[in-house]
Amino acid sequence: MIRTVVGVVVSLAVSVIAQKAPDLSVGVLPQLFIHGGHFSVGQQLGYATKDTITFRLENSAKVATLVEWVTDTVAGRAAYDAMLKSANDTFPEYVREVEGMSYGSGVDFKTLFTLNVRNELSSFKVNGEKLADTVEHCSDYLVNGLNQADGTNEILIGHNEDGSWESRDISYLVTAHMYGEDVREAIRYTSFVYPGELPTDAFFWNEYGVIGTMNGLKPVTSLFGGLGRNFVSRHLVGAKDIDDAISRSTMPNQATGHSFNFASTQEKRLLNVEVAPGVGDPNKDTIFAVTNVDDQLQCKDTTPPPSLFHANTYMFLDVEENPSTSSQHRMDRAAELPKPRNSDDILLVLGDTEDVDYPLYRVASSTDTGYTLTTALFSVQFNDEHGIMAGERRLSTVTLFMSNPKTNKEVNITKPLFVE
User: Fold this and answer.
1) Mean of the pLDDT values across residues 55-60?
2) Contact criterion met (CB below 8 Å) for 335 and 319
């Protein structure tokens, strides 16, 4: 049973609109509070968001084409069956969540499973030209401001969540409490969720204080029938610490690539993990690179504090990848801008629109079809040598911006970094 559905930004925007003319660029991010076992949680998500799931599917030509491919062709059916087998073999509980979403929303399971593995299926689609993902998702800026000369003792992650226009204003935050005899692991977490998808292909934080953000990567070679990254990222929300997050994000048998960024309210660590499928290994081991954002040279940085900007291209793994025009433009523009030292500086970069054709803050155009759905700014402050003491996690927050954070900072909501 869903306890409550709250439009967290709508209520905030009311006070802003009362002071000035409505800003049509302001987005909306509802929040859902759900609890129970895997099927039940999926059912609750499906029921609460069935209209937005339907809207998204009706306006996604890519998913429609993939559903037709996996239904009507031998190659498509083989790809679908192989991915479903991998998911069921490794994460049957998360497949149950998709089954629950199907039951709650009334959308058939095959369509929802295809939606959750659309990027991987696109890379397997070999009859004719590959169905490339036209939206290159997300930018991150990581700043390790610990023990600086100015007394700063803070870790920062700024994340632009980019998606297609049909996901604008229909995606949401979910705070979930997983419990019961059938759950893979009891966990409470909050994450950004796209309608019809598993939590999360964007960002999350959980009761252990682990924070994660994600960027899509597109290696040329994919592992046929490997695990979809939505299933890997769903597994990530249960990470108990950063080492556990690294282990989960680099697990074997991954179909394609991803970039993960991790921090924690309990550990003075900030790092990036790039992964790619180990297609040449008989054990299907994932290849990966872990980059700690405390070594300026390793981060290809020259001035303090250590920082790292990451978009949709490999920086540390030597992997042949499909080119990303938007990503290269965003990386070039970020390199031109002053290096961030604090949260305000990060927002100036993530909100930059100077490159009209391929901006950092994306508004969908003829050249770049991506939309920045929300900007998340994670601030983890430390006041002792071991981390945030019990009862003091209020020092660590996430601020969610529903508009360009550079020009419209008042349209946001700040939340403490623990599950409410």
Assistant:
1) 92
2) no
Whole-number Å distance between alpha carbons of 10 and 29? 8
From CA 160, how far away is CA 157, in angstroms rounded? 10
pLDDT of residue 283: 59
Two tokens, residue 6: 């709250």
Q: In the chain, how many H helices and how many E strands?
A: 12, 15
- The single-letter DSSP state of residue 363 is B
Averaged over 276-284, what is the pLDDT?
A: 71
The DSSP symbol for 289 reads E
Is residue 145 a contact partner of residue 153, using CB atoms and an 8 Å limit?
Answer: yes
265 and 250 in contact (C-beta within 8 Å)? Answer: no
| Residue reference for tokens 């900072």 | 409
Residues 6 or more apart whose Cβ sits within 8 Å of residue 284? 223, 226, 252, 253, 277, 278
- Residue 13: is its pLDDT beyond 60? no
The answer on pLDDT for 52 being more than 60 is: yes
Q: What is the DSSP letter of 165?
A: G
Strand residues in 186-253 grouped as ranges (E): 187-193, 203-206, 210-217
Alpha helices by DSSP H, listed for 186-291, are 229-236, 242-249
Residue 375 has pLDDT above 80, yes or no: yes
Report the pLDDT value the prediction gives residue 298, as an integer from 0 to 100. 62
Tens digit of each residue's pLDDT (9 = 90 or more) over 230-265:
999 999 999 999 999 999 999 999 999 999 999 999
Asked if the model's pLDDT at residue 299 lies above 60, the reply is yes
Q: Residue 178 corresponds to which tokens in the numbers above?
A: 């997983």
- DSSP per-residue letters across 106-164: ---HHHHHHHHTHHHHHHH--SSS----S----EEEEEEETT-TT---EEEEEEEEEE-
Which residues contact residue 21 at a Cβ distance below 8 angstroms, ignoring those fewer than 6 apart? none
Helical H segments across 337-373, by residue range: 343-350
Specify the 3-state DSSP secondary structure of 343. helix
In this model, does residue 12 exceed pLDDT 60? no
Please report, for residues 77, 228, 384, the alpha-carbon distance to residue 114 in angstroms, rounded to integers and kept in the order given: 11, 10, 47
* ∠ CA 195-198-201, rounded to 5°: 90
What residues does each domain of the chain span? 4-124, 139-170+195-416
Residue for token digits 């991010």?
A: 29
Backbone dihedral region for residue 116 (phi beyond 0: left; psi -120 to 50: alpha; all else: beta): alpha
Listing DSSP states for 393-407 in one string gives GGGSEEEEESS-TTT
* Per CATH, domain 139-170+195-416 is 3.60.60.10: yes
Per the model's pLDDT, the better-predicted residue between 176 and 415 turns out to be: 176
